[in-house]
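Reopening this ticket.

The earlier resolution said the output was attached, but the attachment link was broken on my side. Pasting everything inline this time so it's all in one place.
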Amino acid sequence: MKRTDSAYRLARFVVLIIAKTVFRLKVTGKENLPKDGSILLCANHSSNWDPVFLVSAIPTSRSVRYMAKEELFKIPGLKQLMTAAGTYPVGRGQGDRQALKRTIELLKTDETVGIFPEGTRSAPGEFTAAQPGVGFFALRSPAQIVPVAIIGNYRPFKPMRVVIGKPVNIEDLRDQRGAAKAISERILEEIKTVYYNHV
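Inline output:
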């Protein structure tokens, strides 16, 4: 079920003000968001501000959930804000099965989960290799995969853009050997296409 509770709305309202006033955020491509079903929202990643921009770009009817490193949940105040914003903790490394299981469960219940396929930050306009994690989630859920490009230099009062692309078709890759990696690579290529078509 989509989260539209007051806590999320309040958290989104706060970050939206920051995104609009400090970063002059502009959003295009909202018509590409599926109206029904779960969504795996996949974006490039250059800054800790990226989750703020994605939450701001997506309507509250499509509240965005994220995994975040568990250390952040030990910071007083931040834990409450992150929880209200729909974020849940993940341990270091690749062994946090509970977080992986929760992500799959969310994607099976019409939720929207935000993820950065590269798994780490890169400089604006640059991309690193796609990690297989996003392909793992795509294979094990019915989620529609939506590529998103975050464009800008992250400087205060300089325009930032979020461009939402059309859903990615992965059906021809599902039965392929090494499908998770191939799917991750296709998703990243789609993100690059959206990015370079709008810079």
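Reporter confirms the inline version is readable. DSSP finds six helices and seven strands in the chain. The first strand starts at residue 26 and ends at 28.
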